[in-house]
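Blinded run. Sample ID left blank on purpose so nobody reads anything into the name before looking at the predicted structure. Input follows.
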Amino acid sequence: FGSRWLKILPHAAVLPGSWHREMVAKRKGAVVEEPWEEEHWEEEPWEEGWEATPYVGEVEFAEDEERVIIKCREVAKIYGAHAEILDDGWTVGVAVGSTVAFGVVERANQGPAAANVWRIAKKKLNKEAGEGPAPKKSKKPLLPECLVGELAGLVRNQSTRTGDFFIDCGKIYDIYQRDAKIKLYDKPAGLGVGDPVTFELIPPKYDTDAPLAKAVQKATGAMAESILKSCSFRRKGKGDGKGKGKGDGKLARANMHGYQAAVSVMRMVGIVKKKSLNTGRHFVSCQDISDVYGRDAQIPLEEMLPDLGFGDRISFEVDEPGEGFSGTLCARNIKKLGVETSKRRKGRDEMGDGEDEEFSGDDNAAAEEEEPEESTEQAAWQDEGEELEEVAEPEARPASREEQDLDSELQTLSDTLGELVAAEREEISALTRSAMTKLAASAPTEDPDTTQGWIKHQDTIFAGLPKLPKDWIRIRSKSKGLVYFYNTRLGKSSGEEPTE
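Blinded prediction complete.
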């Protein structure tokens, strides 16, 4: 491509060579006679397009790949389209990807045309602008003008595999044929399927990717009502959509598109781990989560506390996902716990998590070594007791006849009561054995994979064991088969059986 496009001029009588010589002479400051002066100056916009090059852009192929255009946001904003380069065979040194300066000429019933196109070195361009050396060319895709700024839409569904949310927005779907995606770790707290939102858009890097939503906020008031009226769920199933269900249909529409809500919210306790180099989010070490789901939870950037750092103990909430979930488990509503003392930390490390306990035969010896010495006061009382034992007690008087009869009746009642208690215990044992047999038959063949599953099968898996205090359950480790105790409300585990 070249820098002078004679094809756009309406003067058919002018030869390309004469116009080229005239432009070269004019740039050198020479006076050039105009034999067709009257006809030439009648079209002022064309002359302005040739003399002025106020715009700068990059040469690229158009979407139809049949035309060559110069992408310039300023030109597109003024004329409604990018300027087209018309091929007249004169321009040399300009290729796709070149940065050029150019003028613009309007055409009737057509888009604008580029005039006086000439290539600019990137370093020179930035030097003239006072910005130093030219930066490297950005490979980020450009966002269409109609999608720049704040957009509005409706949260359509949630992926059952990754947990990411998708937004129904007609403008976005018309251009990309895909819905905007909200990453699970970027989702504001409390946002769900069917909620109206406002957001900004990041264009997809590849054609197979979905555009990403950023700065997502839940819409309220008049804005929310406007979004609900203008947006509707697409890709409906067969039929007219009329049903007999009651309510606003929010959950029904969500389930229709594959949404699966979390079973429950779990409150857990863990320790902040290292930060991911790719995402910048911290991992949370929590044995209960890693044992069940095989991976650690992550802290979204908006949930990170200012004073939270590596090694801090926290309590947090995490949604218990459904079956088949392979996305990221996000820790939310984080609370920093108090710092442990050295003795408490040492005791917790010695106690372990209930799965690595090893018992040795030297426990009694260790207990004897750790037993504190008796105080002087305690020793004095023991000495006094020994002295009192040496004192002779007075002889007891013989029992009367009435007392002997009463003792005999009490002995008879005691024997009868003992027989009744023994018979009752035998009956209870028989019932217990029968119940345990039935429970064993209904017990699951494999241990559950979720906390809700462990709660449901407590009486079948651990039949016959004493009942635990409120909110405590037993969980058996898959790796070692040891049983430890877990508090479903506080989210902590213990290797010792709780008493309260």
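Unblinding after everyone has recorded impressions. The chain has a mean pLDDT of 70.
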